[in-house]
Amino acid sequence: MEPAVKCTDVRFAYEEAEVITGLDMTVEKGEYIAIVGRNGSGKSTIARHMNALLVPTKGSVVVFGMDTKTESNVLPIRSRASMVFQNPDNQIVASVVEEDVAFGPENLGVPTAELRRRVDDALAIVDMAEFALRAPHELSGGQKQRVAIAGVLAMQPDMVIFDEPTSMLDPEGRASVLAAMDTLHERGITVLHITHAMEEALRADRMIVISDGKAVMSGNPETLFAEKGEELIALGLDLPPLMQLSHALKALGIDGSAGISVEEMVEKLCR
């Protein structure tokens, strides 16, 4: 079975500055991947290669079997791989929520009955159905971001690429967007989440660490944080709070290893 994304020796430069420096990476269909790296590591540039917003200077990015360098593949790729960006205000184009969600498929000529079904389904998935007739400017940041996700879902993509979608949100908005991402994954949609928040990366099946435009580490997030903590810190990354506590306890000779929840940590320490 072909992967959702396969990057082979990808290189990309803005003018003379090479940002991606030999990326090899594969994403399987249905995976939930967190892509992490310090600021300037190239992760957002990598994200834009996943749906042909950018194409490699050298090497290849193949999305669902289609090479992004082939011009005739661009629209088919974008119909299957959609993006959600940092600022929800930049993604909302209509004055009513349901009209905004309908914008993409309507422009593709989706019949009215099918369009209605897609809009209703997409709003239900992100728990925004009750806001269908509201004006987007009346919504919170988290609600706007969920509307943006609904607009992507109405296009019926096979993969959604999230480029730091929670970075401008308060804790409540962040939680609601992350819950929507979990729902997409449960429905079999491939999820790529570019994030700087290590506690968000813990939700993924697999974490890929980017440094200087390359993938330097890949694996289960909890395992990587537990076993490669010092290496991740050396790469300019933080550890999730509980993992920081675990490493601090180990430095004191106390076994604080546990899962990712407060309850698991307390149970472990109280034994």
Over all CA atoms, what is the radius of gyration? 20 Å
CATH class: Alpha Beta
End-to-end separation in angstroms reads 46 Å
How much of the sequence lies in strands comes to: 15-25%
Query: Looking across the biggest beta sheet, what order are the strands in?
Result: 6-7-8-3-9-10
Q: Tell me the domain tally.
A: 1
Spans where pLDDT lies below 50 across 5 or more residues? none
The fourth-level CATH homologous superfamily is P-loop containing nucleotide triphosphate hydrolases
**What order do the helices and strands follow?**
EEEHEEHEHHHEHEHEEHHHH
Number of strands: 10
- In terms of structural class, how would the helical and strand content be classed? alpha/beta
- Main sheet overview: 6 strands, mixed
- Quickly count the helices: 11
Could you tell me the mean pLDDT?
90
The amount of helix comes to 25-40%
Oligomeric grouping of the chains: single chain
CATH topology: Rossmann fold
CATH architecture assignment: 3-Layer(aba) Sandwich
What is shown here, in short?
The protein has helices spanning 43-49, 74-80, 97-107, 112-125, 141-153, 171-186, 198-201, 221-227, 229-234, 241-251, 262-270, and strands at residues 5-14, 17-27, 32-36, 58-63, 66-67, 81-84, 159-163, 190-194, 206-211, 214-219. With 271 residues, it is α/β, with parallel strands linked by helices.
